[in-house]
Design goal:
The structure holds two protein chains of two kinds. By secondary structure, chain A is mainly α. Chain A is 44% helix and 0% strand. Chain B has a single domain, classed as Porin (Beta Barrel), CATH 2.40.160. A 16-stranded antiparallel barrel of chain B has the order 1-2-3-4-5-6-7-8-9-12-13-14-15-16-17-18. In chain B, 34% of the residues are buried. The chains are: A mainly alpha, B mainly beta. Chains A and B meet through helix 3 of A and strand 1, strand 2, strand 4, strand 5 and strand 6 of B.
């Protein structure tokens, strides 16, 4: 790798920040009107589902996360446990 | 490694004036919402996790109930309880040394319970939630608080959310007679835990978790969600029972770093496929922590209404892969990894795949409530099959392969 490219290579954090800024900027140009949200408000299109689905998802995460070395992406609440 | 008995967490009772101020604030906030008929929800669920042999089996029954009430449109309360009834066999001694395998397992029976409660406050574009949970089992106790807030922008096409949770956990451990980690012994049993028995002690573990989310509607049929999660664990994180044979002395109690900083980024996308009237949900997650575990998760779900309006069918698949912790070794005698050692297969190189299906039936009563009371019922039944492969967690040189099934049944009532 050349010295020049090393010196001026933007950091990963900067690149992610610029990408996020562009995405948020693009999102500002988009408005889905309330009368257009019939499909999006259906339980099958909601992130995390409705109350019933959210409880099921929490049970599933509880069963799976305890068998893997990672976490994240689905909330922070909950009591800790030994789970060994 | 902390060997002295931890300082007890000082619990100061909040002043009476603080309670009065909080109650007054909640009352004012709630009163500003327009009152309406009381809405009460009741969710109950039971999940069974069954992991088969080889190398120990595990059966976990996980029932839960959740009761919610919204006295006004802007104020809600909830309380819940859940349990894990665990039985089976778990690793007692990880003994893979010099090619001779002698994994020792011990029977495990535990009963873990969590009681939780919280409230939510909603304004036109803002929702605030807070909760508390207390979990307890024979050898582990946990207090946790969580807070979250979200707001809707751009005519509700964008939602930004943040959440924070903190746990104060206590882990039962054996009082160690030797400060050298390679000479520590594992906890034999949990019957003496959280008593005055001088042979056991309590070790603290504090967890801080933060999450930020951005949900965006891009079109009437397409939405995405980007989530960043971070969790910092500080304290005793070993399994107090598990021992590892280092090949130089008696098996020693598992010894892992006290601090673990975990970060994950998840991106989800929901697309409605109008020609086949099906929702396609795709999610990916990248994870990394300071123990150098890196993982990737990919999930795909298809869901649609079948036969009648209230009946939904969901099919899903999931793939997960992770690298091992920097201090993990399958054989610490031949391949030592510094001062730490573990027999936890969840810290080894592993991958898993899962496939499952679920039916959900949720008819609504409409304007005329059933019995003048019940407005909606939801029932669901689903099952998943999981296959695990541990490439560097071997039994006599053979990588471990395990399978599991997850069956879940739930019923919800909305009054």
């Amino acid at each position: 790798m050349s010295r020049r490219s090393t010196k001026h290579a933007p950091s990963m954090a900067l690149r992610v920040g610029v990408l996020l800024a562009l995405l948020v900027g693009a999102a500002g140009c988009v408005t889905v009107k309330p009368q257009q949200r019939g499909v999006l408000s259906d339980p099958i299109m909601r992130f995390g589902g409705n109350g019933h689905d959210a409880v099921e998802q929490a049970h599933f995460r509880h069963a799976i996360d305890n068998r893997e070395g990672s976490f994240g992406g689905d909330g922070v609440a909950g009591g800790g446990c030994g789970c060994n | 490694m902390q060997l002295i008995r931890p300082r007890s967490i000082t619990r100061r009772a909040p002043s009476r004036s603080a309670f009065v101020a909080l109650a007054a604030g909640l009352t004012v906030f709630a009163a500003e919402g327009s009152p309406r008929g009381e809405v009460v929800s009741f969710d109950s669920r039971y999940t069974l996790y069954r992991e088969g042999t080889p190398y120990g089996n595990m059966l976990v029954h996980n029932p839960s109930v959740l009761l919610g009430a919204k006295p006004t449109e802007s104020f809600g309360l909830h309380a819940g309880w859940q349990a894990d009834v665990v039985s089976g066999a778990s690793v007692k001694i990880r003994n893979e040394t010099r090619g001779v395998d002698a994994v020792t397992t011990a029977s495990v029976k535990d009963f873990r319970q969590v009681a939780s409660g919280g409230f939510s406050l909603e304004r036109k574009y803002v929702t605030f939630e807070a909760g508390y949970a207390y979990g307890w089992e024979h050898d582990y106790k946990s207090h946790s608080v969580d807070f979250s807030a979200k707001t809707e922008l751009l005519q509700r096409s964008m939602e930004l959310s943040i959440a924070y949770a903190r746990n104060w956990d206590s882990v039962c451990d054996r009082v160690q007679s030797d400060i050298d980690p390679t000479r520590r012994r594992g906890l034999e049993k949990s019957t003496a835990c959280f008593t005055a028995d001088p042979t056991v002690t309590t070790r603290p573990l504090v967890l801080d978790a933060f999450q930020a989310g951005w949900t965006q509607l891009w079109s009437p049929l397409f939405a995405t969600q980007l989530i960043y999660s971070r969790q910092v664990l500080n304290g005793f994180q070993s399994n107090p029972y598990r021992e590892v044979n280092l090949g130089v002395s008696s098996p020693a109690q598992e010894y892992v770093p006290e601090v673990r900083d975990r970060q994950a980024v998840a991106l989800k996308a929901n697309l409605y496929l109008r020609p086949i009237k099906t929702a396609l949900r795709v999610g990916v997650r990248a994870y990394r922590d300071t123990w150098d575990i890196r993982s990737f998760t990919g999930e795909v779900e298809l869901e649609r209404y079948v036969l009648v309006d209230a009946l939904r069918l969901r099919l899903r698949g999931r793939y997960y892969t992770q690298g091992s912790a920097t201090f993990y070794s399958d054989d610490y005698y031949l391949v030592p990894r510094g001062k730490y050692f573990t027999g936890d297969r969840e810290l080894s190189t592993m991958r898993s795949w899962m496939a499952g299906a679920r039916f959900a039936f949720g008819p609504s009563a409409g304007q005329q409530r059933w019995g003048g009371l019940l407005s909606k019922v939801e029932l669901s039944l689903g099952g998943d099959y999981v296959s695990y492969d541990y490439s560097d967690f071997t039994i006599a040189g053979t990588p471990l392969h395990k399978t599991a099934i997850i069956v879940s049944f739930g019923a919800s009532l909305l009054f």
